[in-house]
């Protein structure tokens, strides 16, 4: 069966129905009317319209409660969203159903984002078309795209992204929409990972939380009352360039002492090389001997082997991340902090250090009920979040 | 005429009407119906109900547009709100009309908040009753109260406030409501100053901004989309205890290196004394000779006299405030930063230093359109904000 593009919700009630079906599953018309506080007549006509638009469909009889047997309403089984997660060194693509469940396997290729938009988007679209063909989808209902840098959400373009040369102002959203013939939205990868956690991860049902990505870059997604907070210019959450020390190492952004200059991917590689040169880490020395170069992943490998100096590198980094997060907890008083991204896979030594600083340095009132946890979504957070972003737009009243 | 307690809005439409009348002045019923997108019949009955509730009243004929002459609707001229601003060293009280204009003069007494809730609230209520009698008000429509420490907004009590011994858990809101016989709400003074700026100050019509108070303590009010953001536990904005240096001076909160331990009121007094002892400030030495002690105000006086070391104290403090604000700009991407509070009266040397650091240290995208300005409301921000808080509740649908 060839899936085709569906319409968009036309009224606030239709939008609420679609989000309720996405987040809580099929309901009868009567249940929908009760849940949303509208008359049964109104609900019946709204559901009919959603069916005409290709967004909803019948889903078998509801459990009988006496009287006339009613039919369950569900999201259309034809709905297909695409999530494209462009990272600094790879591209991931997934297809989801209307409820944001990933269909089949997420596709993944290594790709250096510095190769520029034509090359990287070309590869992302090729991967997407392959996946659409496998799932026999002509045109998806919408596609969400994430990139590892600041984005002007309203115009759908990257804005002066430090690690993405050639992408500044490139019309990524419109190019993807045109190529795939469906609605598209662009945001930065960290915001999308936060949305992924909100829909399918540990932040599910937590209305206000911070998602902190520690990978090649360090960034933060902010969710307030179930909505992504993007800031006035769309660049909220840029915590990688918060100063940690006044006279620290120079950062790619041109300033010095930024958090990312201490604990981003290239900072870890730099510290790993320094450890080998100083003769302080047998495990890292062996890895360098074997591979010819060292990356953040090698620090993780050395930590897994119990290398004391590698553990110290992670503790120092976790300590600095903790200072920054303690400031944000004092300022923002979130309900949950989720740590994700590649470096976060270092797991408990890192988490323990971050927690220690956050709990010691923040106002007791703000940390009394504040869990600080690791993401459990791995590489799925970005693609699921990208699909979630476009589903919000398709399910919202135009 | 004795003013009496009015009712509260009963429907979302009534609430919208009241806020529109408060913020933009009298309208005809037809204009109100058009502005809020409801039928004229519905609006007529909603306005009648607001009049019955004592919240709205007729306000003379509208300009004729042909056809039947219509009547303007305005807020009831009987509406009276009280704003009580309890600071670390003083109490201010004002009475406003329904549009939050201060009637007559704001009343002010010196009062040490450390004398405890019975004593301080007793003085605040005495001042309030005197003002109500002057304005011939039996019972105000509502009273807002601000205190200089963290507040559990939902239960209306201070929570472990560092500079308010004896106030922890004291039922301030309920005590004030009982004594004055009207609805009351309690929040921290900084949040209320932010509301004051939003309604009557430089932040008017700016939907998302930060208000930074620099006084005895240092705190931040966060407004997002026209609403105060209080955080999950109601303690968002506690920026005075953000770490500036790992091994800095000990703070009243028990940690070290907090912003407030460098630039709060007692930190400035400490630095002023040290300057005199070190023979570095003739102006501060003369002030100490004259008064027997030194406070933050004396640093301001010495700056006004052009004392070089006093200026340096302010520059150093402004530099540290700037570092913290740069972090918050990177994280939060606000549309405006307003600096208020006593120390902020130091004016341009302080502002210049703060601006320098914020503009240099934040992402260019976040500061391209970011004004950093001084408050122009002086001591009115707290009382107007307190009145604004309770007006929001009275004007909101129950």
Automatic annotation (TrEMBL), chains A, B:
Domain of life according to the entry: Bacteria
Cited Pfam families: HTH_24 (PF13412), ROK (PF00480)
PROSITE patterns per UniProt: ROK (PS01125)
Similarity-based family: Belongs to the ROK (NagC/XylR) family.
PANTHER family according to UniProt: GLUCOKINASE, ROK (REPRESSOR, ORF, KINASE) FAMILY
Name of the featured protein: ROK family transcriptional regulator
Organismal lineage: Bacteria, Bacillati, Actinomycetota, Actinomycetes, Jiangellales
